[in-house]
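Sorry to interrupt, but I need a hand with the structure work. It will help me judge whether the discrete encoding reads sensibly. Write everything out right here, beneath this request:
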Amino acid sequence: MPKKQALPSEFQVLPALPLKNTILFPGLLLPLSVGRESSLSAVEAALKTEEKEIILIAQRDPHVESPQQDDLFTIGTKAVIRKSSRPSNGVMEILVLGVDRVVVMKLETSEPHLSAKFRILPLPEDGGSEVEALSGALLDLAAKAITLAQPQSANELTRMLSGSEDPLRLAYLLASIFSLDPAKEQELLEAGSRLDALRLIHAFLAHELQVLELRQKIASSARDEMSKEQREYLLRQQLRAIQQELGDKDADKAEVEMLRERFEKANLPEEAKKEFERDLARLERLPAGAPDYHVTRTYLEFVLDLPWNSGTQDNLEIAHARQVLDDDHFGLKEVKERILEHLSVLKRNPDAKAPILCFVGAPGVGKTSLGQSIARALGRKFERFSLGGMHDEAELRGHRRTYIGAMAGRLLQAMRRAGALNPVILLDEVDKLGRDFRGDPAAALLEVLDPEQNKTFRDNYLDMAFDLSRVLFITTANTLDTIPQPLLDRMEILRLSGYSEEEKQQIARRYLIPKQLKATGLSEEQIEFTDDGLKTIISGYTREAGLRRLERAIARVTRKVTLRFAEDHTDKVIVDADSLSDLLGPEMFLPEQMRKSVPPGVVTGLAWTETGGDVLYLESTLVPNGKGLTITGQLGEVMQESAKIAQSYVWAHAAELGVDPETIKNSGVHVHVPAGAIPKDGPSAGITMTTAMASLYSGLPARSDVAMTGEVTLAGLVLPIGGLKEKVLAARRAGIHRVVVPHGNKKDLRDLPDHVRKEMQFHFVERVEEVLSLVIPGIKVQPLAIAS
């Protein structure tokens, strides 16, 4: 028989047995199944001793197969092995009794098993009124919980608990009865006082009692629901028997027969016929109370509601279509011509594929309303839905029928509402599509907006090929930058630029004022807008490329006038420039005016914004004894690069421009573009930056009556830009009639109204030297540089 190692009296060494998912409390019995080789060795070593003592320590992580000292808790239990047996090879069943709480000082791993060097940790013996109160509360909670969890043995367990006089033993018993979490059991074993142990087990029992009461409530509700379903079943059976006695048809069979009648009249394609017949036969076999019954019936009704073969007759009269488009919208010549071209193609070839049009323009220029006009001109049904913010692909393609509450995507729902195979479907705000973990709607649109693919479009819910090739798809966007290139490639881009002041006056006279008079109930005998008044509203109260603010301003004027007549005003109201301050308040926008004279370093540039064009005065100044280039005005990366290119170009050509290189070398430059609070970006300020730098370094002021736009390269080339119409209109509003434009934009002058082209003077340039000679009087530009 092995002897214990001689140690100081307070320390002892015994074989150690790690526990995976349980804790042994002092004074309690615990059956264990031992299978690990080191654990079997530890048990055998303990059995060879006279006392048969062993140390039980819980593992921090039950998944560790060969635990070391760091893998075990430091506080465990000394136990005595009461019984042992070997039911099979490699497994030993033992029954252990907890004796003392111990603190493991060190773990030895030299033997085939673990050995623990430990000392006894006495159990706490504190008392007091709070301990007594908690003990009584624990007994009450335990009685209720045992009654709910184990009603068959509730009396026996309650008596056993009541017989426990030691509060700590009571806590240990409750932990073992209710299978406390191992981490909580370890915390209970390590409790430094009876009060802490009782508080821990009390909190657990209170939570356990709430869970048990909730389970009982759910079980009771389920039983009540089951009895309710049984009652409904009996009533249905009785109703079916009554209907048979009266000769009435079964309601469920009547629904199936109705679906079959609709199916026979629907003339579905072959693939759809097979799928429909299979699902209809399945529906006949299902009882009405089955969950799949209503799902299948809804699906079959949706299939029958779709326009598989029906379509509307197109009105192919070119004169009628032109009249409708002109009645609804002023200008937009290019878009109207494209629609008329499609009509003429349909007239010769009714099976021609519909184009995929994309209207791009600033907010309020009439993109969405133009789609409605196109549908009215063609005599087709019109459906519209917005793609703005859509980030779930299933909203377009639908959900699979495996999901609860599955439904078709928006496209097929729009087709069902239209009831025709050839509607006009407007997909609004295609540039504002989102994407996340639920999919990419833009990728789903690739199939929809491709005439070669959408002939067999498959919705996830329908799961059958549906023909979308006859649909006239129209998309709208404010910008093309955020639209993926593959999607953009499938669409025909039609740009809707902003309106000039004269065009806005015509639109207000023809469309906006009559619309608001009708909305407010006023007549032309009660209110009159003068030309001067309309012009003031357009220039002083709105600044936009579109018409929304203008319409709101006119609506506000008509409401004010309506209020006057409601207060017994009888005279006709003349809306002119003088009366607008009373009707709309002070002007919101100061009229754009060119600066009469500008110092060296200040140049007039033109910019495009979403609300139209704008005139920007680019300002630059030398900073004596400064270094580098300082840029302010919330300029984007592209404009900052243009400023650096401009400085580098002027420095490289200082001799040709008559600029002293020492001035550039010894002075810093500060470039500012007002207004400072508005972000600005784009390459079109290139020649403006270069001209400002040349004017600053040469000390020669630029002409204030010339505005310019164009991208510049480091070699001095002037490249074309976009948004020319809006920029020219902005210069005209400011009273500037001479504009420097890249030679590559000469073709874009056709977008300007005739009266604007005649009024403005354009200078087309290919190199920076041409710009400088036009804008900065007196600057030295060598002819050789221009020729190059």
